[in-house]
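Section 4.2 – Deliverable D4.2 (structural model, holo form)

The reporting period included a commitment to supply a predicted holo structure for the target in complex with fe (ii) ion. Inputs used:
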Amino acid sequence: MSQSLPITGTTYVEFYVGNAKQAAHYYQSAFGFQPLAYAGLETGLKDRTSYVVKQDKIVFVLTAGLTPDSEVTEHQKLHGDGVKVIALTVDNATQSFTETVKKGAKPHFEPREESDENGKVVLSAIKTYGDAVHIFVENKNYNGIFLPGYIKWEPDYQPEDTGLLFVDHIVGNVGWNEMDEVAGFYRDVMGFDQLISFDDKDISTEYTALKSKVMANDNMRIKFPINEPAKGLKKSQIEEYLDFYIGPGPQHVAMATADIVKTIAALRDRGVDFLEVPDAYYETVSERVGEIAEDMDQLKRHRILIDRDDKGYLLQLFTKPVQDRPTFFFEIIDRKGAESFGKGNFKALFESIEREQGNRGTL
Ligand code: FE2
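Output (structure tokens):
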């Protein structure tokens, strides 16, 4: 966004799910999120219930519909569990709405003020790819725990965190030949710059291929890689996503940690499933990435992936899909200077994804 409308961060990511109570428990028990806030029948809502969980700067809202005709229920019926809202913290939500809509954004809802005894917020929203939306959150005059309308959620169950710190980037999958249009939306409407692009020659394996453009705002706190499928011998993992999500949508949220070995070990202990990385990956990795501070045996034991760019290196690993449909997943990332997204790992990653696709019979 232009200098006059800075985005200071990701306020929260909202998932529309089939059962918010159980989803919230999963994010607490498996990922170490802490309970923060709640809204539902008890707070006067009629059609939905939301549990808000937090880990350092990462805030997730898990929302489920309470009635068959709720917008949430309909979204979940079509897409399965998935990300509906990527909320962005802005200085002025009215101006963010007016300016983006003037530049061609489709409105989702008009600016509105909400307040309680802790102050006021202004919210507005525009549509992005698929059925996902961006809510602009102006909360500089609000001191409550989350947003007006939510009450504090304080269950006895508060498992330890796993060292997750902030949202590093959020990837969107879009349809065939739609990447340029969506990247153009982030450039022309949101004022983002293109960091990098990959084509199918960079990101392909024997069977699958994709193209990607990475769009970022001016302070680089918001990074949105946009993927589209490319022709391969068999079905691309992006196509599999599109088939099961029934259209474009957010593919993964990358969460940063400052100690990936500790974080991955904790997540594995709590039952989070990660993509399998072949042994052979570690035979050539030192050659590819050179000297790194971490103990390679430890990285291999936890199946952590390593990549390097001209600024440094990064450590990352991807979960398996976190719902029944093979759609949304998480990335855990620990940047040691690198500003890229692990292009060198795509081949290793895709080979492991394809083995799983093969197991599901959808390759
Ligand atoms: Fe990523």
